Amino acid sequence: MRLEGISAAVTGGASGLGLATARKLVKAGAAVTIIDLPTSQGAEVASELGESARFEAADITDVEQFEAALDAAEEAGPLRALVHCAGRGARIRLVEKDGRPGALEPFEDVIQLNLIGSYNALRLGAARMAKHDAVDDERGAIVLTASVAAFEGQIGQIAYTASKAGIVGMTLCAARDLASKAIRVCTIAPGIMDTPLLGRLREDVRKSLEDSVPSPKRLGDPAEFGALACNILENPYLNGETIRLDGAIRMAPR
Ligand SMILES: NC(=O)c1ccc[n+]([C@@H]2O[C@H](COP(=O)([O-])OP(=O)(O)OC[C@H]3O[C@@H](n4cnc5c(N)ncnc54)[C@H](O)[C@@H]3O)[C@@H](O)[C@H]2O)c1
C-alpha cells in the first residue's frame, strides 16, 4: 500500500509506540488520526506533528467513542490503515503473597482493553475499509500490537499474557476472515521498548534489562516499531503473521 495521501488511524497514538508510528506515517505523507484518551497528550502531539495529524479523544473500550473517532479519521479520506497500539499491563499473581487468590477485576480490565479492544479495532476498522474501492488490489491493512509476553509470560503477567496471546491467536484468523475483502492483518510482538513507561525505571534496572537483550544490547527504539508498522502496511505480501521485534530476547520467568 502506498502511504502517501491515505487516511490512517493510530490508537494509543499520543505516546510511545503509537506516537512513533504516527510520526513515521506523517513523514510518509499519510493523513493521521491519533486516537487516544482525553487525558493523554494527544492534542499537543498532533499539533507538533503538523497539519496532516489530528487528535480524536476516545476510550477504545467504548464502541461509540471508537466509532466517532474513526468517523473523524474518514473526514480525511477513506480509512486504509489502522495501527492499534492502545494497551497496558497489570500485575496479578494467581495466588498473591498473602495467600488470597489473584483478583478477578484487573484481569477482566486488561482483557477488555487489550483483547476486546483489538477485536473492536479489527471489526470496526475492517467494516469501514471493506466499503471502499480497492487500490492496487487491496482495501486496507490493520496492524495489532501484542508483546513477547504472548510467548514467554513472566510471573505476575497472567492477564497481560492472556490478552496478548489472544491477539496473536486472532491474527491469522482475522487475515483469513478478511481475505475476501482484500484487507490484511499482521501483529507486532515487541520486546522491551524504550517508551515513557521504561523511562521511569531505576538506572540499574534499566541496565539489567539492556543486558538481557542478545543483540543489539539495548532497549528497542519506538521508531523501530513505527518503521515496522509502516513496512507491514506497505508490503502487500505480509499477511496473517505475528512478527517479533525484540533483539532476539527470550524473557526469563521473572
Ligand atoms: N513498551 C514496551 O516495552 C512494550 C512491549 C511490548 C508490548 N507493548 C505494547 O505496546 C502498546 C503500546 O505501549 P507503549 O509502551 O507505547 O505504552 P504508552 O503507555 O507509552 O502508550 C499507550 C497509549 O495508549 C493509550 N491508551 C490506554 N488505554 C486507552 C484506551 N482505553 N483508549 C484509548 N487509548 C488508550 C494511552 O493513553 C497511551 O497514550 C501496548 O499495547 C503495550 O502492551 C509495549
TrEMBL record:
Entry-linked SMART domains: PKS_KR
All copies of domain Ketoreductase, residue ranges: 9-195
Family matches, as PANTHER family: 17-BETA-HYDROXYSTEROID DEHYDROGENASE 14-RELATED (PTHR43658:SF8), SHORT-CHAIN DEHYDROGENASE/REDUCTASE (PTHR43658)
Q: Which family does it belong to?
A: Belongs to the short-chain dehydrogenases/reductases (SDR) family.
Give the UniProt keywords, A-Z. Answer: Oxidoreductase
Q: What organism does this protein naturally occur in?
A: Saccharopolyspora oryzae
Name it.
SDR family NAD(P)-dependent oxidoreductase
Among Pfam families, the record links this protein to: adh_short
